[in-house]
Amino acid sequence: MLNPLGITILTILLSLFYAPTVAAENNDHTLHAADIQPWRIGAEIFTNGTLFEADFGDLNGGSFSTDEPGIDVNTAKGTFTPGHWLRFQPTGRLLYWNGVQWSATAPNGERIEITDALDNVITFDAAGVSENAGVIGEIGSDSGLHEHLNFKIVDISGTPNGTPGAYRIQLRLFESQANSDTSVAIAASSIAIVFNRGLAHQDFELAVAAADDLHENAVYAEDKKIVTIPRVKALGSYYRVKLQQISDNLFQLIEAYEIPQ
């Protein structure tokens, strides 16, 4: 846990830090703001946010399926290796918004299924997630990729259905060689997707706001003595930061990336 001295040092360091905004251009096409936009620097994958929204009631998917959000590599910020696979590992468990709080209990045994690029089905339910990782697609010759996977909600019988509410899943992106489960680059933390199933817009946004609060906790890697804070506000912008502990009461900023508000 950061003590007041550490927080003060962080505030001072962030006040001196500037992260320029990169135009939303990905070579020859414009990035879609609602898509997950990963990029790679070294062996780490970054994204344009930690929380994304989707709607099972959209026109393309109907009441119980959607292909949003898409995954669109931001090659302007960092490229992947042509011929490699961009993949995802499901993490955590399915959470359900009951109108008051997020719960690990689905009213009718609902689960969310993702059909990946190889037609494998990866599941998320209240008990946990599939052990197998999914494949988003193969990195193209331009070092980028733009794909849309299919997300579907089903009830305990396996029928496309879902109690009205919001549903939250988490996954972690990684890159591997083709036909390999060994990562060559991986995201430091998971991202979350919150799906609307039949809620009015204002009610869904309450669920999204509550889900966003689940990302606020800092993570301390004791072996490396590094604190990762998913979101810190400084100078009117938000940043994902890493701090290196250099003594009992002192942390040094070693990495900061601007993220969407």
Commentary on this structure:
It is built from two helices and 22 strands. Strands 3, 4, 5, 8, 9, 13, 16, 17 and 18 form a nine-stranded mixed sheet that branches. It folds into two domains: 1-22 and 216-261, no CATH class; 31-215. It starts with a helix and ends with a strand. 33% of the residues are buried. The protein is mostly beta strands and 261 residues long. Strand 8 (85-97) and strand 9 (102-103) form a beta hairpin.
| Tally of separate helices | 2
What can be said about the biggest beta sheet? Answer: 9 strands, mixed
Poorly predicted regions: 1-27
Q: Structural class of the helix and strand makeup?
A: mainly beta
Number of extended strands = 22
Helix content: under 10%
Strand content: 35-45%
Overall pLDDT score: 83
Give the C-alpha Rg: 19 Å
Q: State the end-to-end CA separation.
A: 24 Å
**Shape, per Cα inertia axes:** globular
Summarize the helix and strand pattern as letters. HEEEEEEEEEEEEEEEEEEHEEEE
Q: How many separate domains?
A: 2
